[in-house]
């Protein structure tokens, strides 16, 4: 049932191009517009929304962090993202015009469920982004967008994460489409880019051998740091989470702009630091900033592992290891940038002799607090 793979995680990583395509299936019409009829929140209700609040845990929370950049950019609706375990125990300000999005692979995570109950008690509409048909979170929500990733068996989430991202982009673009924003043209173009993205994920998977051998060479390290900016920041957090849970290593993700505010003190000779580099096209200021961050850490001895777009030559002199990903629009880059980090964590864990599908102390679905 592992389809020839040693671990479910490897199988699920390999399934990502199909999973991503399945999340899009039937949701883009012939004219290139989105049809999310299954989202039973009417266009007029969506036009009334004045705030989006995303609640989730773990990897799903990282998808939510990325969604915030997309939602605010494409819709200009303020968006907050919060860990469900924090949200449910404070006194969040919500009302009938707030749209709460609960993201959960299993649909059974207790903290996320409690957060959505709390939101509904305040009169907010709740949209679930979920992978498990008929699970509790979608049943208790006003609407659900299923991710259609297929069953995810490995404890560490991979294909569910990529499809959560696609679902988040769909919701963001749909909100933009329904409300009409100044980004109208951009939305059409992004929908076209999204419909191509499965092939780009496939291309990344085809080039992972150097990432595997790099991972094996780092098996005796204690610490790996991850840096990113903009949507690359949650990607860094996700890379660090995967490494913690699978390789049991000290792994931390930082916003690259925060380096000088503390984390740079951690840099020492030969410390591996993975850097997720934004596209040099588009918002090139982000790119330039991160290139100087790479120079700063390298000057202090870091061993830089740079994930950068094909054709980005500016990073070459500062990369001890260079991992290439296809060029994508900035906001979609997490769909390709996360994949090498999954492979990296899986291979490092294997090299350290860990059980990849069932990491110690973890459960696939956290139905207790
Ligand atoms: C990490 C991982 C967990 C889950 C989290 C939420 O690889 O799998 O962090 O993402 O427990 O689970 P769901 O999405 O089922 O609510």
Automatic annotation (TrEMBL):
Catalysed reaction, written as an equation: D-fructose 6-phosphate + L-glutamine = D-glucosamine 6-phosphate + L-glutamate
Catalytic residues as annotated in Swiss-Prot or TrEMBL: 364
Recorded GO CC terms: cytosol
Example of a GO MF term: carbohydrate derivative binding
Biological process per Gene Ontology, one example term: protein N-linked glycosylation
Enzyme class: transferase
Keywords, sorted A to Z: Aminotransferase, Cytoplasm, Glutamine amidotransferase, Repeat, Transferase
Subcellular location: Cytoplasm
EC number(s) recorded for this UniProt protein: 2.6.1.16
Annotated function: Catalyzes the first step in hexosamine metabolism, converting fructose-6P into glucosamine-6P using glutamine as a nitrogen source.
Protein name: Glutamine--fructose-6-phosphate aminotransferase [isomerizing]
Record organism: Streptomyces cellostaticus
Stretch of the intact protein here: 247 to 615 of 615
């Amino acid at each position: 049932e592992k389809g020839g793979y040693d671990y479910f995680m490897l199988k699920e990583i390999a399934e990502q191009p199909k999973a991503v395509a399945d999340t899009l299936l039937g949701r883009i019409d012939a004219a290139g517009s989105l049809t999310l009829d299954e989202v039973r929140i009417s266009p007029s209700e969506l036009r009334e929304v004045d705030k989006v609040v995303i609640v989730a845990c773990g990897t799903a929370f990282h998808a939510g962090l990325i969604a915030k950049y997309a939602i605010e950019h494409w819709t200009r609706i303020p968006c907050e993202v919060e860990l469900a375990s924090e949200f449910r125990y404070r006194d969040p300000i919500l009302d009938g015009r707030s749209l709460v999005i609960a993201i959960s692979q299993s649909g059974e995570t207790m903290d996320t469920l409690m957060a959505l109950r709390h939101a509904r008690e305040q009169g907010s509409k709740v949209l679930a982004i979920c992978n498990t048909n008929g699970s509790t979170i979608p049943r208790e929500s006003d609407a659900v967008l299923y991710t259609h990733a297929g069953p995810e068996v490995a404890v560490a989430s991979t294909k569910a994460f990529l499809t959560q991202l696609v679902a988040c982009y769909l919701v963001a673009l749909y909100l933009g489409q329904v409300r009409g924003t100044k980004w109208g043209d951009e939305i059409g173009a992004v929908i076209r880019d999204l419909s191509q993205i499965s092939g780009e994920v496939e291309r990344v998977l085809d080039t992972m051998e150097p990432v595997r051998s790099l991972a094996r060479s780092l098996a005796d390290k204690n610490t790996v740091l991850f840096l990113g900016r903009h949507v690359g920041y949650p990607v860094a957090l996700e890379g660090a989470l995967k490494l913690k849970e699978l390789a049991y290593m000290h792994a931390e993700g930082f916003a690259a702009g925060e380096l000088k505010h503390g984390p740079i003190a951690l840099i020492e000779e030969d410390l591996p630091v993975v850097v997720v580099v934004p596209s040099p096209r588009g918002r090139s200021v982000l790119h330039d900033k991160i290139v100087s961050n790479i120079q700063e850490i390298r000057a202090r001895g870091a061993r830089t592992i740079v994930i950068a777009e094909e054709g980005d030559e500016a990073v070459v002199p500062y990369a001890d290891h260079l991992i290439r990903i296809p060029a994508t629009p900035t906001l979609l880059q997490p769909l390709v940038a996360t994949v090498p980090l999954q492979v990296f964590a899986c291979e490092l864990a294997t090299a350290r002799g860990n059980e990849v599908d069932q990491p110690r102390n973890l459960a696939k679905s956290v139905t207790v607090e």
